[in-house]
Amino acid sequence: MTTKDARVTALVTTVEILDELGLDYWLCNGTLLGLVRDGELIPWDVDLDFGLGHLEDRGAIRRAFESRGMIVQDDGSGSDYLTFIFMGTKVDLNFFAPQGDEMVTLWKVPKNSGWIRYIVAICSRMRLPISSIQCLWTLEGYAQPTTALFPLGDATFYGKSMSVPRTPAVILEYTYGSEWKTPRRDYDWRRDGEHNAYG
Predict the structure, then answer these.
(1) CATH 3.30.460.40 fits 3-105+144-188, yes or no
(2) pLDDT tens digits, one per residue of 104-119
(3) Which parts of the sequence belong to the LicD/FKTN/FKRP nucleotidyltransferase domain (predicted)?
């Protein structure tokens, strides 16, 4: 099986699990960008991105994904997302909370310092509980306008119906800027993001 086939299988399997759980989810970030802009996953994107409401039962979600062979990847940050590995593909479930007229997801990411990133990487590998050590982390993520997000719509990719934002083009321009239709292999969400969120 090729890497592309594995990524498509991971995408479809994730959608099936979320549908079976009856959750309101949507494709987001690079996954939404590739599927809407190109009709396929971006070959150089390193993960699959899904958005969910912040009140969803993470324990039930985790159990459902693990029962389908997905391996949870816990970085020890205590962030508001779940990450799984399936067939070599990273699957990120981002939990969004309302903040004014936007839905926002924030992740604890290591502060942009070499030695802090090194400490976090070592502690994560050793599974040490480090999420409460505030000096190691900063909060960063994405914001999406609620009116462009809800009510959710549907689109078919790879023969499977999937939930998407109400107006995907508005979400993509909000996230990636007016040039979102032009592929950029060097895109960096921290450096280039139009409406990044910070806590």
Answers:
(1) yes
(2) 998 877 666 666 656 6
(3) 20-52
